[in-house]
Amino acid sequence: AEGMTVKDLADKLEAKVKDVMRVILEQGMRMTINSTLDADTATMLARQFGAEVEVRSFEEEIVEFEEGVSRPEDRETRAPVVTVMGHVDHGKTTLLDSLRTTRVAEREAGGITQHIGAYAVELNDRKIVFLDTPGHAAFTTMRARGAKVTDVVVLVVAADDGVMPQTREAIDHAKAAKVPIIVAINKIDKPDSNPERVMRELSEIGLLAESWGGDTVMVPVSAKAKQNLDQLLEMILLVTEIGDLKANAARNASGTVLEGKLDRGRGPVATVLVQDGTLHVGDTVLVGTIVGKVRALQDDRGRSVREVGPSTPVEVLGLGGVPTPGDTFQAVEDVAKARQIAMFREEQAKAKSLGARGGRMTLETLQKH
Ligand code: GTP
Ligand code: MG
């Protein structure tokens, strides 16, 4: 159960966390609700709660049909993708709003309307993509499904409140996913703010600020008063530069579904993050078990676009069904083959039974009976 925590499992089983914890303790295992479960333990626990478990192997899921392995010289720097996390009320939404309005609206009188749960901002002609989703939920669901969409986590900690339970949880998630953390010490405009206290509390749980000799970048900001936001963006670019993020715009698009919905007028609509390649109107895409033709693409401001490159969130219209967040998508040349793979996946999903060793469990394969 790569990425699934005790809490995730309890949610999935519609069981109380404390009941799951009780079983764990009865078995003599030492865990907290945030411990990550391995496939065997998760299977055992799920059975205790009357759920059927399917474990699928990596091999079954990795279906290679894209021939062209990209040449290193075709790979270009792509924009970093950021998820904002933090404790309740520490200012995540305000920060996302302020970044969007200061860095995007400048160019457009009257401001902008955001259309999808992700958007791009620019600093000195360099793009940064923010996933505007309730951080924890999106991050954990995605990760439980094996998708990696985030290059860096911005951890918002209110300077008048300090480290709180969800602050710690966010750190655990980011560490488990091996994603670097940048701390935005927020609300520094407040008279009772105490950034040093936040730094001290963070140092006690393993995040030592660079300015104190550690290696975690911490930026004091005010999301509300829009203080130091450019500095935060600069730091995001700096930290992700080290990661040497590359993509090849010349290949067929691939990426991850961020959201899926059925729109009355427009039919199935998927918000996807194109992570590699270029997605065009007219492309045939394989998304989970759905094969469809891209009828239209709409960017983060609701504008119709013909094509989008790597690190771009975009709305895709024309799919034959509603995909699930965390599904991967792949543009394909060979439609017949794509259908074949889609069918194969569907059959696999149906036929898969218990006991496949060395497999990976994903949240959607865990079904309560
Ligand atoms: P949840 O989505 O509920 O987890 O909260 P959140 O982290 O998104 O916090 P949100 O942005 O909703 O902010 C919570 C409150 O803090 C709001 O009343 C904001 O106006 C206020 N707030 C956020 N940032 C700042 C800041 O920099 N300074 C001050 N003074 N208030 C802030
Ligand atoms: Mg919020």
Automatic annotation (TrEMBL):
<feature type="region of interest" description="G-domain">
    <location>
        <begin position="80"/>
        <end position="228"/>
    </location>
</feature>
<protein>
    <recommendedName>
        <fullName>Translation initiation factor IF-2</fullName>
    </recommendedName>
</protein>
<comment type="similarity">
    <text>Belongs to the TRAFAC class translation factor GTPase superfamily. Classic translation factor GTPase family. IF-2 subfamily.</text>
</comment>
<feature type="binding site">
    <location>
        <begin position="86"/>
        <end position="93"/>
    </location>
    <ligand>
        <name>GTP</name>
    </ligand>
</feature>
<comment type="function">
    <text>One of the essential components for the initiation of protein synthesis. Protects formylmethionyl-tRNA from spontaneous hydrolysis and promotes its binding to the 30S ribosomal subunits. Also involved in the hydrolysis of GTP during the formation of the 70S ribosomal complex.</text>
</comment>
<feature type="binding site">
    <location>
        <begin position="132"/>
        <end position="136"/>
    </location>
    <ligand>
        <name>GTP</name>
    </ligand>
</feature>
<feature type="binding site">
    <location>
        <begin position="186"/>
        <end position="189"/>
    </location>
    <ligand>
        <name>GTP</name>
    </ligand>
</feature>
<feature type="domain" description="Tr-type G">
    <location>
        <begin position="77"/>
        <end position="246"/>
    </location>
</feature>
